[in-house]
């Protein structure tokens, strides 16, 4: 289960270059940075965001997900439900914008220490690399490496089903250790449009790739997905 140190560090070193290449499915219009810098809406019980999730390759709608702040205390809990009312795993933050249980990936991930969901500074010059460990439910004793490079790309006006927003576009390049020792060089890429006025992102895209141990040069692609905000309150 140990990730090759060479593979891990080499992939992470590529972050500043690779993160400059957007997925380019969603389009925004570049705008000047807001002055003064906007405040991020703080969490309140009952705040809610609904997203439509699509497969980028075929345009198929994969689900409509509603996220709602249900608890604010030692942790912040965001409950999630599907269009038919079925409950989905909850997102858990240790403080506003710092995620400990992340629901946005194919498997539920528990991070320790927690990771930022958006840039720590709403500045076009900001970037930072984070290193943490993650586990998956049922295997909490097995903690695997996660390295993430977050880079702000600029402010954009973006139109989604919920309306028109001025959002900070940033990108993540992630290199992580897989629980399957035969799967190596796992890379995920994200482009996110974060709207401070609603305290959440209005659009997000994600894709990933990996290699199989011993398969020289063969890179396997994971699914590529897009989320758009349809409503909020």
Q: What is the H-and-E element order? A: HHEEEEEEEEEEEEEE
Helical residue percent?
A: under 10%
**Measured distance between first and last alpha carbons:** 43 Å
The tally of beta strands, per DSSP, is: 14
- By CATH, the architecture is named Beta Barrel
Uncertain spans, ≥5 residues at pLDDT below 50? 1-24
Q: Assess the beta-strand content as a share of residues.
A: over 45%
Secondary structure category:
mainly beta
**What's the arrangement of strands in the largest beta sheet?**
2-3-4-5-6-7-8-9-10-11-12-14
The gross shape turns out to be globular
Main sheet overview: 12 strands, antiparallel, barrel
Number of distinct helices: 2
Give the C-alpha Rg. Answer: 17 Å
- The CATH topology annotation reads as YmcC-like fold
- Arithmetic mean of pLDDT: 89
Task: Count the domains.
Answer: 1
Write a structural description:
- With 233 residues, the chain is mainly beta.
- It contains two helices and 14 strands.
- Mean pLDDT is 89; it is low at 1-24.
- The chain is globular and about 50 Å long.
- The chain has one domain (5-227): YmcC-like fold.
